[in-house]
Amino acid sequence: AGKPGRKDMTDAETQIERNADDGAITYLDGQIGERLAEMDRRGLLNNTIIIVTADHGEQFGEHDLYDHGNSLYLPLLQVPLIVIAPGATPGSRVAVPVGLRDLGATILDLAKLSGTGTIPGNSLLSLWQPGAGKSVAPSPAIASVRPARFSSTTDPAAKGEMYSVVDGRFHYILYGDVRQELYDVIAAPAESKDLATAYDTSAAR
Fold it and tell me: What's the chain look like in SS3?
């Protein structure tokens, strides 16, 4: 992180960075596997909700950016979300974008404790169990980032606190200097076509 001249790295040097990141993930995967195996040995998995997620992704040259904490593009927002609960997760994959804000409500729903109080967010259970309780749409996936001490003056976040929301197929980004970007992440997952230039965004200012 913060390596001088990262934007000038060759493809081979960038691949070394990717390999190092993959190695860290592989190590973590092994550690999680060991713990799950031990829980299985003790007979705990039949009464345990397991959730695997992360706080951010990583950039390796997308939009000429590296590391994290400097923008709100998809490589930083898309993180793993694996939910395993006895009798409640059939092994399906949900294509709808969701945010970590809904995890608390989902845990209460899986533990059958959703009637004991209120917590922000909506349970995601109905996304893979149709008819399982009240079907509520996931909350929009909202994210924000503030300028970091190590930010380059050319980083998007250097212009002030940024916000973004992913709702359905669209990803909207608001810069600290009120510049805006809008992407159709289904048509262009690499966020290569900014649709905001086709709209009058003066009202947001």
Answer: CCCCCHHHCCHHHHHHHHHHHHHHHHHHHHHHHHHHHHHHHCCCHHHCCEEEECCCCCEECHHHCEECCCCCCHHHHCCCEEEECCCCCCCCCCCCCCCHHHHHHHHHHHCCCHHHCCCCCCCCHHHHCCCCCCCCCCCCEEEEECCCCCCCCCCHHHHCCEEEEEECCEEEEECCCCCEEEEECCCCCCCCCCHHHHCCCHHHC
pTM for this entry: 0.81
Per residue in 69-126, pLDDT (tens digit) is 899 999 999 999 999 998 887 788 888 888 899 999 999 988 888 665 678 888 898 8
